[in-house]
Amino acid sequence: MERECFESLYNLQKNVLEQIRLAAHRLHESVNQFYDGDKPYGYHLDKVADEVYAYGHHVLASEDDLLPLFMGAWFHDSIEDARVSYNDVKKIGLKLGLTEEQTLLAAEIVYALTNEKGRTRKERAGKRYYEGIRNTPYAPFVKMCDRMANIRYSCGCYNMGNLRMAKTYEDEMPHFTHAITVETDDIRFLIPEMMIDDAWGVMAKG
Questions:
Q1: Distance CA 150, CA 162 (A)
Q2: How much is the CA Rg of the chain, to the nearest whole Å?
Q3: Rounded Cα distance, 115 and 127, in Å
Q4: For the segment 52-71, what is each residue's pLDDT rounded down to a tens digit?
Q5: Under a CB-based contact definition with an 8 Å cutoff, are residues 79 and 27 in contact?
Q6: Coil, strand, or helix at residue 31?
């Protein structure tokens, strides 16, 4: 999709998008979740949505997919961290004015990005987890947006935890991008090449 068309669609849906954003913020506030210890978790959710806004025109296949794409970004951690179910996500989408089809797509993205049960980082993001992402429209892209937001943050903040995570993301990058890559002509499953290049660029500077 042309960038100008994407921005026009975004601006037309700004009121609904803001309601989605606020609903996600309230949900994570209700469970007292924070990002990097002291930031409201909505800070991270907004950064993921910012990445969707920056690169989303490369993957958006239909005007109707704009709202579920952004809802998938703002709610991507809701099942994993905020004590809601797959059906709860669908109910929230309907309440916010999305259609049945849109809420289904948003919920599928969120479900795909929900980590498996596991004792370690590797167990929580194992083979089954990545298979789910690869099989779900827009999930590879939203997962890359999540990773990109974390990379930018970790490389821009200089405490020991951030430095450790920046190194982790750099070490994981080849496996990570391979694990979420789908060989298809369906743009809903693609990750923009320039996005991957930008991620490497941020890590090189960090």
A1: 9
A2: 16
A3: 11
A4: 999 999 999 999 999 999 99
A5: no
A6: coil
Largest alpha-carbon pair distance within the chain? 45
Is residue 107 within 8 Å of 82, Cβ to Cβ?
Answer: no
What distance in Å separates the CA atoms of residue 38 and residue 17, rounded to the nearest whole number?
25
Give the DSSP H/E element, type plus range, for residue 34: strand 34-35
Give the SS3 label for residue 147. helix
Q: State the pairing for strand pair 39-40/34-35.
A: antiparallel
Residues 6+ apart with CB under 8 A from 37: none
Per-residue pLDDT of 154-174, as tens digits, reads 999 878 889 999 999 999 999
Dump pLDDT digits (tens) for 94-124. 999 999 999 999 999 999 999 877 788 777 8
